[in-house]
Write a structure and sequence with these properties.
Blueprint lengths: L1 H32 L15 H11 L10 H17 L16 H22 L3 H32 L5 H5 L6 H4 L1 H14 L11 H4 L9 H26 L7 H20 L5 H28 L1
Helix pairs in contact: 1-10, 1-11, 2-10, 3-4, 3-10, 4-5, 5-8, 5-12, 10-11
Amino acid sequence: MYLNMISLVLMMLFSLISVAFLTLLERKILGYLQIRKGPMKVGFMGLFQPFSDAVKLFTKELIFPSKVNLCPYMFSPLSMLIISLIVWLVFPYWYVVLSWKYSLMFMFVILSMSVYSIMISGWSSNSIYSMLGCVRAIAQSISYEVSFFLLFLCLMFSISSLSIIDFTYFQYKIWFIVILFPVFIMLFVSFLAELNRTPFDFSEGESELVSGFNIEFGSFSFAFIFLGEYLSILFSSLILILLFMGSISFNIDFYLKFMFMSFFIIVVRGTLPRYRYDKLMNLCWKTYLGCILMLIIFYLSLFYL
């Protein structure tokens, strides 16, 4: 019991530290993609820049807009961070048993709750820009959750289990990215849409919506939203590796795969323009949904054979 608690606390602590260095990696990669250096001043090659930003954010004055609904306004950023931390409970340890039989279902329950944080933060600010960004983000997340769940259903049929650690037992000989490549591509795009990342960052359309649902947030409340968003990016990279790229042996191979997936999500941000909103909805409801239903029939037939 105590070992479980210590493992949980350490995992949450180090995942928050890894968010700091993920932001540094993103700023460096985007800098080199735009032919500039990125952060260079604080520490060696800008290594301590994330900690400098954290100190700046947490020491800034918290300003409340005049018509804000105070309790939900203060609660929503914290709830976003807590949800992003709780979802890491499904991480399958080898020796400390925290991965249970229905860990995939638990992951879905927690991920679907993240919509409520966006909704509360957009509504409680009492600003038309926040509300517009919140409505667009919610419509996008709810639309992609349908195809998201059906894609995982294809994977569940492939291994006949709801446990994440069972995926590692089936990939000793061949990775699922080879035999389930269409599912991997669709799941990767669905994760980008769920995370509101480029090219699907419609809640943060700078030209028309300024900064989406979080426009009225500053100081540590903005830092919580920021941490929650980047924790979700790390978690999505982890899930894609566990489901499609082999076992969870904690060697250099695992961390290279983890870094490559996070790197790929950042490179997508630096290279692709923003998608059109109606095309995103068409992609979900008219393309992905039909493809996934066909794939479910195909994998189900293979399972019964």
